[in-house]
Amino acid sequence: MKHLLKPCLLKLGLLILCFTQLAHADSREHEQLKRSIIKIYTTAAAPDYFNPWALLNAQQLSGSGAVIKGKQILTNAHVIANGSFIQVQRHGDAQKFRARVKFVSHDADLALLSVDDESFFDDTRPLAFGDLPELQEEVTVYGYPIGGKSLSITRGVLSRVEHQYYAHAESYLMAGQIDAAINPGNSGGPVISNGKIVGVAMQTNNSNGAENLGYFVPPSVIEHVLEDAEDGVHQGFPELGAVTQSLESPSMKAAAGLAEDQEGALVVRVFEDAPAAHVLQAGDVLLQVDGFDIAADRTIEWREHQRTNYHYAVDHYHVGDQLPVRFSRDGEIHNAKITLAATPPSRSLVQGEKFDQRPRYYIYGGVVFVPLNMNLIKRWGNNWHSKAPIEYLYARNQWSSPEQQELVVALKVLPAPVNLGYHDWKNWIIESVNGEAIHDFQQFAQLMESTEGEFVELKDSSGYRMVLDTAAAQEEQPLILQTYQIPERHSQGLFGTLAEREAAETLGQVQ
């Protein structure tokens, strides 16, 4: 018995030694991983869209990020949006390093940072990317939530993967959902599985009844942005340019010429300047995209027993790529390829929220004119859905067209003799200048500048008018700017762009 005990004890000792060594190795690996999780400090000064020549008070924000290949830090776009000064700090270090934005995709809520002093990366290891885990698998979120400087590690289970609205830029892309809250400051931190990045923490669900639900940017979206960033030129996710609706109604399905065993998405509108206009038309039924069958609810099976919106297939492509589609027209099946193009600034008359740029504005006779966009609407605060002017909210549901690209608003009147009688006018959407329809903000400003008559007349869609004396407007302009401490009567580059365009057109005529 004694002879048998010694070998057993020896084996047990070797096992304990082996487990101890593995534990130490795992600990070193974990410590090395934590050194690659970065805290980001941002000083952000957003423009004041109520006073578009000024900035709001600067805010101090913080977020998280991770070191990836190429001496870059991957984080959320909303962590560094409108940032005027950015610093980064490694886990366990007191020193902060100056960082700069290298590339940003606001639609995907992702950004890449570089660091001025490359020695910052000496004691860090770039984290690799992994595949998206299966549902119900555990993942770990690393970050620096507000309220402390130490690294926070949160575990959760991957519960859902499908298209979601990204709160930052109100885009609609694939997202992963985990049953763990993503707190302020955690944003931009990596979601880790088996030591690899499988997502970037993005936002939490604050709706009534939702508890401990967080969302992250999945590998498919991250990969698209990294490929887009390779040449440093942002092109974003391409546009198909077709509006569709579900085809779950049997009557609608029959009217569209589909058989009982066929499913697809009904095309209700194709923008005339969009890529799809060369192939699709209203009334067609989109049956397949990139080989994926489209169901009546407009979803595809992107992974076994998992479905999401068919735009998942489109989002894998880049600008200039050809997207294979199959569609039905009057009961006849067609196969084609659509050459995808860059998504325009907006298909709505109200352009989406923009970041890292100054507002456009134009002052004439003390009246402040601006284009209508989501930056202005959101200036009414978190409850803008109920507090912003109803005309603004209604305009969000109107499509733009080649004839009308955006709306122009008389935001407010700076009281002066020239605008007597209009001092209480504000948030007024105008339709024409001297009887000429408004196409976009630049064309509007040019119409105002080129007015040669005694008066300039502005009119809205209901027929209400504002008439200003052109000579008085020009004469009083310097005093108005001085009185209200406004540095310039229009935003920088507004007329420079117009002048360049006119010069190019003139050069073309001469040649």
Q: How many β strands by DSSP? A: 30
Q: Report the uncertain regions.
A: 18-25, 498-511
Task: Specify Rg, calculated over alpha carbons.
Answer: 28 Å
Q: What does the overall shape look like?
A: flat
Discrete helix count: 11
Structural class: alpha+beta
Going across the major beta sheet, what is the strand order?
Answer: 1-2-3-6-5-4
Can you tell me about this structure?
The chain has 511 residues and is of the alpha+beta class. Helices cover 22% and strands 33% of the residues. The protein has 11 helices and 30 strands. The strands form 7 sheets. It has a 6-stranded antiparallel beta barrel. The protein has a 6-stranded antiparallel beta barrel with strand order 7-8-9-12-11-10. Strands 14, 15, 16, 17, 20 and 21 form a 6-stranded antiparallel beta sheet that branches. The model is unreliable at 18-25 and 498-511 (pLDDT under 50).
How is this fold's topology laid out?
Blueprint (H helix, E strand, L loop, with lengths): L1 H34 L1 E8 L14 E10 L3 E4 L1 H4 L2 E8 L6 E9 L4 E6 L22 E6 L8 E15 L4 E8 L11 E4 L2 E9 L9 E4 L1 H11 L8 E2 L2 E4 L4 H6 L9 E6 L14 E5 L2 E2 L5 E5 L2 E4 L1 H5 L6 E8 L2 E8 L1 E2 L19 E3 L2 E5 L2 H4 L6 H4 L2 H6 L12 E6 L14 E3 L1 E2 L2 E2 L3 H9 L5 E5 L5 E5 H14 L10 H17 L1
